[in-house]
Amino acid sequence: MMAKINIKDYLVKQPIIQITLFKVIVSIFLFLILFILFYGQNFWEKQAIKFNYELLSIVSSVQGETQLSIWKIEKIKKDIGLSKDNKIGQINIIVQSIIKNNNNNYNYNHSIGYYDNELNQAFLDNDKNTISFNEINSELDLNKINSISKDNKIIKVSLPIYEQGRLVGYVFGYAHNSDLVLTSFNVMSAIIILALSLSALIMISIRKHMKQLQWYLEKFGHIIMHGNSGKEEILNKLPELKPVLKKITSFTNDLKEVNSALEISKINFIKIMEGISDGFYAIDRNWQFTFVNKETQRFMGKSNVDLVGKNILEVFPEFKDSISYEKILKAMDENQTVHWEAGGLANPNQDHEFHAYPYNEGLTVFFRDITEAKRQQQEIDRLERLNLIGQLAAGISHEIRNPLTTVKGFLQFFGSKAQYQNDKEYMDLMIAEIDRANIIITDFLSLAKSNSDNVKSQNLNEVINKVLPMLQADAFNNNKEVVVELNTLPNIMINENEIKQLILNLVRNGLEATAENGHVRICTHLKEDKVVLEIKDQGKGIPQVIQEKIGTPFFTTKESGTGLGLVISTGIAQRHRASFDFKTGPEGTTFYTAFPAKLAQGKDLI
Questions:
Q1: CB neighbours of residue 276 within 10 Å
Q2: Which of 93, 94, 87, 86 is nearest to 70 (CA)?
Q3: Which of 141, 177, 382, 434 gives a 20 to 30 Å CA spacing to 598?
């Protein structure tokens, strides 16, 4: 059943000329089969009659001559002076001579013989004897003129011999039935070969005319596509195509006008799309690019040839796992405009703004790179928050310091009195805490003002060594360690107190994130024209969800934290024109502060 379906589908896909030629060939082949079937039955019957007739003819010829020579045979049989063997020998010579005289023009594989009743002896053609007399005698009845053996292997013909009205013997002939089949098959094969040859010539002739017809049709198609050259010749050969050509010419002219208008629209559309600064591309419902403008090619780093006609999922395999894929799929399924922000096709790390507009055949997408715009907006938001904190700090600093100064003065006064000598230790502790509060306020005020005091050329390694004992003491108290790896550095313009504060903030944050028996590593090295300070902890890393909030004022994950440590550190780095960044992962977090090595004058600091 499958084979029939496949053949049918195959024929449906073939040109009409090929199908017609195939039908003609099948018709001729079927006619040839029917001819052989109907003709074959009569042929075999005629061949059998002819075979028997020719065998009977030669037996009849031998019988006639044997009948004329029977007196010789009877004379030999009556000669009492001869033994039986001598009689048989002489009779055999006579029979063999008669058979040879009448058996030279017969081509079938047969045997002719004479059987003598009195001697009960068969005289066979010694040259062509292929069947024993016992086999003939057991299978065939010599009394019958024409007979066939029981297993249909032998055909026999026999004629009687008389002498003075007395039956004295038989002349017989016999042959294999297979000889008849083989001879007939050879004749039949010749007829079939002749018929096949004739059919092949007919098919070649038909194919030649079909090819000529195909050539004329192809020429007609060429006229339709490219003009009227040679039209008269084709129409003279195929006048039936005149009305067809007339209608096609009318449709073609209309189509040319429509194509011209579409081409103009296409050119205008391309000019508009190429002129916009945004990226623009279109895909069909099979997700294949149908158009990309130059801005899109620039964004994706590929040419028009690399994109148009290609499946977007093949060009960008990772696209299927992106937010943009889900949004475009939603736009196609729901046939609604969709707007979203996500990474670019070729640059997932860059932020892009997308607008997708579906239509019947596919979807168009406008996009633009907003990475820098978002960074600038984040920086503006951060600066606004810092400015707000600075204004807040400037507004309340004096209000806080004034009562603290009063409290400190009274504590110093009471501490000088004799009756408070037993409490002097506690008063000194309170005075120290007030001093520390004043220092914190001073650091807090650093967010609000530019601090260019005490900026001088110093080596970053010296500042680290000064603050290192304090850091190691903090680490030791928490069963942790601070490890340093300091490389040779040039001097840079820095404010020592602020850099100490930066290092203290970052190292203490690292110690809080590091488990017991762990360590925080402080490294310095020179990279191109930057003096780099690296502080790496052995914590579990900063979760992805809060990484963007790092450095936001008052944002903290600590129970007693203020959320100002990293904000102050960022401000210190900015005033020193240093970059401030971090990398985090399961093995810990590293903060990088890169100072410009060529900065030589304090006045350049902000």
A1: 13
A2: 94
A3: 382
Write the pLDDT tens digit of every residue in 328-353: 888 888 888 888 888 777 777 778 88
- What is the CATH code for 453-606? 3.30.565.10
Angle (CA) 470-574-370 rounded to 5° is 130
Residue type, 7: I
Q: What angle do CA 505, 533, 516 make, to 5 degrees?
A: 50
CATH assignment, 276-369: 3.30.450.20
d(CA 71, CA 93): 15
> Of the candidates 130, 154, 129, which has an alpha carbon nearest to the alpha carbon of residue 144?
154
DSSP states along 447-459: TTS---TTEEEE-
Pairing of strands 519-527, 481-486: parallel
Question: Residues 286, 311: contact at Cβ < 8 Å?
Answer: yes
Task: Look up residue 79 and give its DSSP letter.
Answer: -
Range from 85-89, 297-301, 573-577 carrying the lowest mean pLDDT: 297-301
Largest CA distance in the chain: 194
Angle, CA 246 vertex, CA 240 and CA 252 arms, to 5°: 130
Length of the chain: 606
The secondary structure of 80-131 as a DSSP string is TTS-HHHHHHHHHHHHHHHHHHHSTT--SSEEEEEEETTTTEEEE-TTT--S
Give pLDDT tens digits for 475-530. Answer: 888 899 999 999 999 999 998 888 888 888 889 888 888 989 999 999 999 988 89
Q: Give the whole-angstrom CA distance, residue 577 versus residue 594.
A: 9
Report pTM.
0.36
φ and ψ at 595, to 5 degrees? -90, 140
Tell me the three-class secondary structure of 311-322, residue by residue. Answer: EHHHHCHHHHHC
Separation CA 83–CA 80 (nearest Å): 7
Neighbours of 432 (CB within 10 A): 10
Give the domain ranges of the chain.
Answer: 16-184, 239-273, 276-369, 374-449, 453-606
Give pLDDT, residue 103: 67
